[in-house]
Amino acid sequence: xxxxxxxxxxxxxxxxxxxxxxxxxxxxxxxxxxxxTMPASYLQAQDTATSATVxxxxxFGDETLIALIDTALMNNQELNIVLQEMEVRKNxxxxxxxxxxxxxxxxxxxxxxxxxxxxxxxxxEEQLEVxxxxxxxxxxxxxxLGMSASWEIDIWKKLRQAQMAAVMRYLASTEGKxxxxxxxxxxxxxxxxxxxxxDNELEIIQQNVGIQTNVLRTVRxxxxxxxxxxxxxNRFEAQxxxxxxxxxxxxxxxxxxENRINYLTARFPQPIPxxxxxxxxxxxxSIQAGIPSQLLTNRPDIRQAEYELAAKKLDVKVARAxxxxxLRISASAxxxxxxxxxxxxxxxxxxxxxxxxxxxxxxxNALHATYNTATAQQLQAVYKYxxxxxxAYVEVLNQLTKIETSSKSYETKQKEVExxxxxxxxxxxxxxxARADYSEVLLTQREALETKMELVEIKAKQLNAKVNIxxxxxxxxx
Length: 478
Hints:
Blueprint: H1 2-23, H2 56-60, H3 63-75, H4 77-99, E1 103-113, H5 120-132, E2 140-153, H6 158-224, H7 230-264, H8 295-298, H9 300-321, E3 326-337, E4 349-358, H10 364-432, H11 438-473
Antiparallel strand pairs: 1-2, 2-3, 3-4
């Protein structure tokens, strides 16, 4: 009999071990490594110094602009939302940390139970009453005072890796905050320079309105002297009205740009102080691009993508660990009695200790689906990381080229403005002395106005490139 029982026990153990080994089969590792290879330089430049390390206060230098950026960094709502996202990630770390630590509870429970006559406990009650001639308590009360604890032993580091993934996501959120700061600084600077450009365009139009008004007055006098016809008067008057009409669109753009800055600084609409007269004096200092590999450490969006990728790799490991057995230990100790009067009696002391080794058996399809999802998301993170690196390099290259071409274009356009400004004076003098047709004066005025406006636009592009190259290199968040 004992041999049969021993053999039966061996069979059960062998079956359990076989099932455990089958249940522990896991997918092969499917983590893809990212490619960080980048070109050695930008446009054959070898200087390793980079403007990204320059503080934004020093980089821009305009006190009015600095004050606006300071206000935005304190009040911007989008930045405040990002800061709360960091708090969410920080709390997620605490929650994950609590999962691999023991959990303990203390409390009191009370209950009553009435068993049927033909149930197991009903039969026991009946036998006790017959043998001892005593009535079994009905219903049977149950009181418990004590504590219980449970602890999942992190054999495969599943819980610790889940916590580490939460840490990576928190670090990604801090880089997301830095990236938001970079964008905010750039947005304020870009809108500020656009406002200066619009002010200068409006001033050019008003100057031209004054010039054309004087010319129109002269033409009317010449018409009274029968030197020109009404057609000339009408042409000059139409030109003046057209020039005057330009200012309304620019005034609207000024209002919208001011409101954009107010929105970024979390203020209701109000006038924006600015030094418009210094627009043409803003210097485009020599930009130091450094080398492309520095983007990996200077660009917050690249570091954010890197941390998110690290979190996804850990997610894959966690999903893979779900295929392994899990070990949980539970324990409780306290007092238990059927009557409150006996609850704190030494004979009511109760304690237990148990361990569970559980192997996934039936729900392996769900585990495979979770693992495949984690693997796909990790691949997505790899592609996103590499895409972010490529985008950063292209942005820097584009802005470097833009600075170079806009500087050359500005120099050429300045010479054109000087030439046409002289031509306007010459045309007016020739017209007054009847040596030039009025159409030549109109054409020269139109060309001079357009060229001056284009010069302002080129300067605005230069300043826009100054802002964007700083942003592209990873400056602004320090």
